[in-house]
Specification:
Order of helices and strands: HEEHHEHH
Oligomer: single chain
Number of strands: 3
Helix content: 40-55%
Radius of gyration: 21 Å
Strand content: 15-25%
Number of helices: 5
């Protein structure tokens, strides 16, 4: 009988995160959101700032966590990520009180640009040229 490996290496072309990585990432995301919502961070740039931790991606060994953050409303996501990077040691310490891992992951913060990308696509789809092309395509399909 052949032994099955728990890694993703056996899957063809699959670099998708494992269930373990997904569960750990969601656990860290929720705990990090709780820590941030308490308002214990003593950084002047983060005091009155509202932001969301949209996703946390864990490395396969669960020792590194990439946290994607987005400002609520309009704001500079790059500056937000830089400010959170400055206080990551504090956040990691607070996180260790919330979750139990064999090794507490190192945190890195990246700006989440998915909302900006979605907004750009939405604006593009609502342009008059696109609406005209879509209506012409629908009429041509009905005549067949």
């Amino acid at each position: 009988m052949q032994r099955r490996s728990g890694s993703n290496k056996g899957r063809q072309g699959s670099n998708a995160p494992s269930q373990r990585q997904l569960r750990a990432g969601e656990l860290v995301r929720r705990a990090l959101a709780d820590v941030v919502s308490r308002g214990n961070i003593r950084d002047p740039e983060l005091n009155d700032r509202s932001f969301s931790v949209t996703e946390v991606r864990m490395s396969p060994d669960l020792r590194h966590a990439t946290c994607f953050v987005a400002p609520l409303g309009h704001g500079d996501a790059e500056a937000l990520a830089a400010a959170l990077t400055r206080v990551r040691a504090f956040l990691r310490g607070q996180l260790s009180k919330e979750v139990t891992f064999k090794f507490m992951p190192d945190l890195t913060f990246e700006p989440d640009t998915s909302f900006d990308n979605a907004e750009a696509i939405d604006r593009l789809l609502h342009r008059p040229e696109v609406a005209r092309d879509l209506s012409t395509g629908d009429e041509a399909g009905e005549e067949d």
